[in-house]
Amino acid sequence: xxxxxQPDVQYLSSSRTIEKIDITDYLKTSICFVxxxxxxxxxxxESEIALNSFFQQNKEPQFEFYSERELDEFLTNQxxxx
Length: 82
Description:
By secondary structure, the chain is α+β, with helices and mostly antiparallel strands. The protein has helices at 48-57, 68-78; strands at residues 3-13, 16-24, 29-37, 41-45, 63-65. It has one domain. The radius of gyration is 12 Å and the shape is globular.
């Protein structure tokens, strides 16, 4: 089970944010980014480079979610830190 912390949120508009998420398992820590589009479409980026590629080149991430609960459950229980 992973432990999640949200040290930073950037507001692009009132309904669009980029959340920085620290994910920790028992031995390792990783950082990922979540683009929250109007509270119902969440894109998960495993690096800042991937996030920038999305905004500059429209390159879609590997993981997309359509509820915050689905995203949280994935990050907590299924996300593997490498």
